[in-house]
Design goal:
The structure is a single chain. With 368 residues, this protein is α/β, with parallel strands linked by helices. It is 34% helix and 17% strand. It has 14 helices and 13 strands. Helix 4 links the parallel strand 1 and strand 2. The longest helix has 19 residues. The termini are far apart.
Length: 368
């Protein structure tokens, strides 16, 4: 039941005929998990908390960095170095003490996704890399969960809702992750901070619509926004009959989860790599960052091959050696390692990249 304080707090949305007391109670009873407490997760979490969603889960294994602060409004300067889940929970509590925040300070993998998602009604993906996005999609397909997709780069963004009954999933429109170098990350090409603010807010709107059962959710529709020109368009798509994640009404098995979505299972932890480097091994470090990044800092004596050049210069790599691939934070290298395995290489990804290596293993390695 809603208390007098809650009725007062949510008064401006209670007067909406689409919400009312019944709708507000539905929001209070809802459990939403947000994957990533970053640029998209920040506005989504804040607006869902402000709207009165009863339980908000936050999953993230990262710490707050100064470069996050221009777009990740859950965090402040005083939070630098702090776990994002902890900072997010405190920010949400300041905004609305009636919300129950569940923190999951861990990296999302296919293996963990199913256990985490089982306790929630709906998932919002605020991640910034393809392996996590496919893991979200495949776990939601297995569990029959709805999830809200959002992505941004530079001045543009996309939003859709996947996993609705008889609706398409992410693999229906994007069957597999792009090859390394064919798609740049925000880390490489940048983003205006307000852009994820807009897209994350739209994700919150889609989540609220779905919980309340109102309006027309973006099922089978990809909303594309170019905020530099103010132009928006909607791309319609349907469920693919041959989509492995949609077979038999989402009743699929672990065997259809691709090596891309499961690539986090091939990660190597910084401490593990440090121990391996201290023994005679046949491991080759592969740095897939850009030349300007190589000039700042490196790990050991790697082979440096920018991710954009990887497909064209694949023959430069020794197939007889095991590869440990790294980048700045581990997003690019995770995609590169998964692609290299598809080409027949033994490749693992350094979890957290050179930045985590600097924090946990060798503080003499410069951070940037």
């Amino acid at each position: 039941m809603l208390t007098a304080a809650e009725l007062s707090r949510y008064g401006r949305q209670l007067v909406l005929p689409e919400v009312g007391v019944t709708g507000q109670q539905r929001l209070q009873d809802a459990r939403v998990l947000i994957v990533g407490a970053g640029g998209l997760g920040s506005p989504a979490a804040l607006y869902l908390a402000a709207a009165g969603v009863g339980v908000l889960g936050i999953v993230d294994d990262d710490a707050v960095e100064v470069s996050n602060l221009h777009r990740q409004l859950l965090h402040a300067t005083a939070d630098i170095g702090r776990a994002k889940t902890s900072s997010a929970a405190q920010a949400i509590a300041r905004l609305n003490p009636h919300i129950d925040v569940k923190t999951h300070n861990e990296r999302l993998t296919v293996a963990r996704a199913q256990a985490l998602f089982a306790d929630y009604h709906l998932v919002i993906d605020g991640s910034d890399n393809y392996p996590t996005r496919y893991a979200v999609n495949d776990a939601c397909a297995l569990l029959g969960k709805v999830w809200v997709y959002g992505s941004v780069e530079r001045f543009s963004g996309q939003v859709s809702l996947f996993g609705a009954p008889d609706g398409p999933c992410y693999r229906c429109i994007f069957p597999s992750a792009p090859a390394p170098g064919s798609s740049a990350s925000c880390e490489e090409i940048g983003v205006i901070g307000a852009v994820p603010g807009v897209v994350g807010s739209l994700q919150a709107v889609e989540a609220l619509k779905w919980i309340l059962g109102i309006g027309e959710p973006l099922v089978g529709r990809l909303l594309q926004l170019d905020l530099l020109t103010g132009v928006t368009q909607t791309v319609r798509f349907e469920r693919r009959q041959e989509c492995p994640a949609c077979i038999s009404g989402n009743a699929i098995g672990e065997d259809v989860l691709s090596e891309t979505s499961g690539s986090a299972d091939y990660d190597i932890e910084p401490q593990q790599l440090a121990q391996q480097m201290g023994t005679p091994t046949d491991v080759l470090l592969l740095d897939v960052r850009e030349p300007w990044e190589w000039a700042i800092a490196r790990i050991g004596e790697p082979q440096c091959l920018a991710m954009n050049d990887l497909p064209a210069k694949l023959d430069m790599l020794d197939r007889s050696r095991e590869l440990v691939v790294y980048c700045h934070h581990g997003a690019r290298s995770q995609i590169a390692a998964a692609w290299l395995r598809e080409q027949g290489y033994r490749a693992r990804n350094l979890a957290g990249g050179i930045d985590r290596w600097s924090r946990e293993v060798d503080t003499s390695v410069s951070r940037y």
